[in-house]
Amino acid sequence: MTRDEIDALFARHAAAEHEKDVDAIMDTLAEGVEHEVVGDPRGVLTDREAIVQRYLELFDGLTEDKLESTRRYYGDDFFVDESHWYGRATGMFMGIPGGNRPVDFRILHVCDLRDGRMSREQVWLDMAAIMQQLAPAQ
Asked: What rounded mean pLDDT belongs to the chain?
């Protein structure tokens, strides 16, 4: 894929996440995709229904205001996107009650590509920043 094609694919994926459109998200993922949110005890998911469930839980816990990409690295069949996420923790997020509080954090997507789609999506979240912002008041 060219850089423009990669950018368009990730823009489509990010827009679908922002709109909480699971069907559109899944359309950006290749058959046999490996999906991982580092720190999620379920680990790497390959079952499409389990991936859909992961996204639905994410959408129950977070509402995105914006995602700002800060850097992107490209390879022949992969890309790495560094971004900053801004929004609200409206429910449970990674086992932490959000209480509808604002939260922002760095996020890293490491993605392999096949046939114009993501064949692996590994997501790294700045959990230290998230925990500091969502920690119960002392």
From this structure: 95
- HSE-up of residue 79 (Cα within 13 Å, Cβ side): 24
For the chain, state the CA radius of gyration.
Answer: 15
Report the C-alpha gap between 94 and 14 in whole angstroms: 20
Q: Which candidate, 39, 30, 62, places its Cα nearest to that of 108?
A: 39
Residue 73 identity? Y
* pTM, full prediction: 0.92
Residue entry with tokens 């999906």: 35
- DSSP-derived letter for residue 46 is -
What is the CATH number assigned to the segment(s) 3-134? 3.10.450.50
Question: What counts of helices (H) and strands (E) characterise the chain?
Answer: 4, 7
Task: Select from 13, 54, 16 the least CA-distant residue to 35.
Answer: 54
